[in-house]
Every structure is written in C-alpha cells, then in structure tokens.
Design a protein that fits this description.
Layout (H helix, E strand, L loop, with lengths): L1 E4 L4 H11 L5 E4 L15 H16 L3 E10 L20 H14 L9 E11 L5 E12 L15 E3 L11 H5 L10 H13 L4
Parallel strand pairs: 1-2, 1-3
Antiparallel strand pairs: 3-4, 4-5, 5-6
This protein binds inosine 5'-triphosphate (ITT).
Inosine 5'-triphosphate binds next to strand 3.
C-alpha cells in the first residue's frame, strides 16, 4: 500500500509517519515528491485538510493524507486558528508567533490560567484518486504558559500545557505527545484524530 502524506511541514511529517508506522503503509511526503502547495482557501480546518489531500491525490493518483491544524486561543476570539502557520511568517518564526500571542494576552489582562485557555485542533483527510474521502477532527484542551518551555515538537508546542499534565508539549517526546502506551493515541489533537481515522479506514499489520 502506498500513501502520500500531503504536508510540507517536517514536524507534522515526523508525527504522521510515527502514527502510520503500525499499519505497514509505505508513505512518501508531498515535499519529497516535489508537489506544490495548494492555496488554503477554506474557512475551517476541515476544508483546508480536504483541499490539501485532494490536490495531492489528483496530482499523484495515489491515496493522500493531509492534516490541517492550529491553535485556538479563547481570549483572542479563536485566533490564530486556521492562520496558525501564517502567523509565523515566511521565515516560520514560531518564537515570534508565540511572543505575539503572549503580547495580545497581556494586553487583554489574561494573566491567570483560566483566562489563558487554548486548544489545538487537527482535521485529517484521506482522499483517494476516485474522489472518495474520509474526514475526522479532534482537539486537545490546555492553557498557555509563559515563558515557553522545552525544545521538542514544533510550532506552538513549548507554550501549550495540556490539561492534566505538568509538562508542555515542547517538553514531551513525540510518543508522550501522542499518548503513552498501553492506551496510546489519546493525548494530542493529531493522535486523537488519527485514532478516529484508523477506526474508519486502517487495518494494523
Ligand atoms: P502543511 O500545510 O504543509 O501541512 P503547515 O504548517 O502550513 O503545513 P497548517 O496550515 O495546518 O500546516 O498549519 C498548522 C500550524 O499550526 C503549524 O504550522 C503549527 O504552527 C501549528 N500546529 C499544528 N499542530 C501543532 C502541534 O502539534 N504542535 C505545535 N504546533 C502545531
């Protein structure tokens, strides 16, 4: 079985490969195939995931797997949300993007944890060349801390403290971020969405 992982984000790619590993699927990324990046014109995570998966499936004639994700900050009316990647600018400066969120939270007087609620969302889409699609979405809730902690993961991980944990995603290994065995796949937005997808259309080998 061959699958295209329709992402150009190395942090996501590493996580998606780990999630797919138990399924014996040979996965190649859109970046490795030299595919272009379609414009993400959707108004929500789900439609942007579909745009990316459909574009890759049409270009390669292979089933294609895309994630659209981001961090939703309650005190900022949901920003950056679907614009999470874009807030880091062309240089992908997530230290600056996190500092920007912190600045806006301070301006709104959001200093206590209850005013610093946020969640990550992951929408996953698998599109087949015949236009069949499967779509799932999941979230993980937590609070935003300052200063950021940890160097693992990617994007906004160092600022995000998931509920019920004492370490940020930036301080966790990717295995912990997915959710530790034996339960597994129970913590991050991406792992939770992947578990739903696996129930629909994947068989372990
Ligand atoms: P592709 O579209 O090529 O997959 P992208 O980075 O542009 O890559 P998105 O538009 O979905 O993808 O943007 C998601 C952004 O949200 C991503 O750049 C991160 O900054 C943030 N994000 C998503 N999941 C995250 C996670 O698990 N940890 C930290 N930040 C995350």
């Amino acid at each position: 079985d061959r699958l295209v992982i329709a992402t150009h984000n190395p942090g996501k790619l590493a996580e998606m490969r780990e999630l797919l590993a138990p399924y014996g699927i040979e996965a190649v990324s859109a970046g490795e195939l030299g595919l272009g990046e379609p414009e993400e014109t959707g108004n929500d995570f789900r439609s942007n995931a579909a745009i990316k998966a459909i574009a890759a499936a049409r270009a390669t004639k292979l089933p294609s797997f895309a994630d659209d994700s981001g961090i939703v900050v309650e005190a900022l009316n949901g920003a950056p949300g679907i614009l999470s990647a874009r807030w880091a600018g062309p240089n992908k400066d997530f230290a600056a993007a996190m500092a920007q969120i912190e600045r806006l939270l301070q301006e709104r007087g959001a200093t206590t944890p209850d005013k610093r609620r946020a969640h990550f969302v992951s929408a996953l889409c698998v599109a087949w060349p015949d236009d069949h699609r499967e779509e799932v979405e999941a979230r993980v809730d937590g609070t935003l801390i300052w200063p950021p902690r940890g160097t693992a993961g990617f994007g906004y991980d160092p600022m995000f403290l998931p509920d019920g944990h004492t370490r940020t995603f930036g301080e966790m290994t990717s295995i912990e971020k997915h959710g530790l065995p034996p339960l597994g796949l129970g913590l991050s937005h991406r792992a939770r969405a992947f578990r739903k997808l696996a129930e629909i259309c994947l068989e372990p080998r």
